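User: Can you help me understand a structure? I only have the sequence.
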Amino acid sequence: MKYTAFLLASILLSGLVFAQAPPSAVLTVQGDIASPLSLTSDDLGKMPRETVSVPAPDGTKIVYEGVTLLVVLQKAGAPFGKQLRGKVLSTYVLAKAQDGYQVIFTLGELDPDFGNETILLADKRDGKPMGEKQGPFRLVCPNDHEGARSVRMLQTLEVVRLAK
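Assistant: Let's start by predicting it. Here is the structure, written out as tokens:
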């Protein structure tokens, strides 16, 4: 009987240890690209980092840190620069969140030679990893007048080319 109780306690404790160490979150970059990616926070930490500040509702500033969406899409082989001409300009990025929320960005608005819009793929807020309701990944659009395209709980970036 003591052995059974010990075994049961060991199983329960090991379950608690596993429950406290969730698997690392993964952002998937897929679709009409040369090199689909699965990125973790560690992967993003090795890429060129940037910060952006956006106003909080109370008038303070929130500082997000991460990698630009442009850099992530370039790593996946999305066409930019001289490749972004003709039919390729009909390519967009569908950003999908864990809760089903979705927004799009065109490659033209992200390209430095066209719109040159900086969209940040953030994994930190005010120097700390983002909480469950914001992250672990979030798109931050500092130049948008409304925050509607700043997708929280980002899971997937899907590159879609309409004209092939």
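Now, to help you interpret it: Residues 138 and 152 are 4 Å apart (CA to CA). Strands lie at 27-31, 37-39, 50-55, 61-68, 91-97, 102-106, 120-125, 128-129, 138-140, 154-161. Let me know which part you'd like to focus on.
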